[in-house]
Prior knowledge:
Layout: H1 3-7, H2 9-12, H3 17-25, E1 70-74, H4 102-114, E2 119-123, H5 133-141, E3 147-152, H6 159-168, E4 172-176, H7 182-189, H8 195-208, E5 214-219, H9 228-238, E6 241-246, H10 264-271, E7 277-281, E8 290-294, E9 303-307, E10 320-323, E11 328-330, E12 339-340, H11 342-346, H12 348-352, H13 355-371
Parallel strand pairs: 1-2, 1-10, 2-3, 3-4, 4-5, 5-6, 6-9
Antiparallel strand pairs: 7-8, 8-9, 10-11, 11-12
Amino acid sequence: MNERAAAAPRRVVSLPLIEAASAHSGTRRRTTGRSDAIGAPAHEPPTHSPGHRHRDDRRLIDSHGRIITDLRLSITDRCNFRCVYCMEPEVRFAPATALLTPDELVLAATACVALGIDRIRLTGGEPTLHPDLPRLIESIAALGIRDLSITTNGSLASRNSMRRWMDAGLRRITFSLDAVHADAFTRMTRSPTPVEAVIDAIEAAIELGLAPVKVNAVILRGRNEDQVAPLASLARRLGFEMRYIEYMPLDSGRHWTPEHLVPAEEILALAAQAGELVPLGRDARSSTSESFRFAGAAAPGARIGVIAPVTRPFCGACSRLRITADGKVRPCLFSLREFDLRDALRDPSLRAAGASTHRRMIEDLILDAVWTKQAGHGITAEGFRQPARPMSSIGG
Ligand code: SF4
């Protein structure tokens, strides 16, 4: 958290989060105040604060009083996998000219850091497909943020590549691995990459010190719930945090139904087949994952986590913001509304106004977008609508 954000808690943290902000912003919002999204009219963005007062502080705070410090920056929509919960085999990617250039990505990140972002995760599609990845890592690391990480399917994460990313400034890595057994892995990813290649990359990342190494798996009923225990055993043996994610309605094929969901409770019962689990809670109030350690012997760093957006939503303390590879600001993963940053980044008249004026306008656009961040995803709320943009072009 940067100094200005650190100076802010007095005003925000003492009351139930959502109520406090309404008082602060002068706009009354009838919301639950609970840390879940179910009661809140999820997709009803607030009107702008009077006179854009939310811009005054120059820090990212939404109309619910949540301070946004984490940016998920998608650097490409391309991917070499076709995971069943994400992307259809016949997916069409955006034209290359529609995607932000490395300089535009860095300018967007710079504006966000100026507004208090201090953790950035590079996502995709598959970010390791980006031809300028080391240079991007270096430029973003040079912004002096607390944490720079990447989410990858691991297929291109060789030991040498990871060393190059670390030399450029990468601090952590999160892998996606939805199965241990080869046939299940191929069924989930629809990719020719052997599962062993990803497991080898995970082992190499641990040895290289890209710690803590986290591994995410999306669990779908009838597809890979039989992989939960083997994944937990792998984590226990190798020493990484295995985090299971409840399936969310963000797939491009729109196949999601509640029947496909394996709830957190059931996932944890399956993971406990690999060993008794001891709850550790959330690392931070805004963490998406509830963590557990093994009661018995396990490799250092071995943990189990569950990310349960559907049955145990965590929106009340959300600190995340997303920027898509084609330059759209998404205040929430489930936003129905996006804010176009690309045009502002490329606008010749704005650029002609000078670098600092141009950047200030970029910042104002991001501040306005964050102010409209909805209370929560509303997945289980009456009238929920799945966003038009699928996960594959939003980024994890
Ligand atoms: S991004 Fe949206 S859905 Fe995700 S935790 Fe934040 S508010 Fe909830």
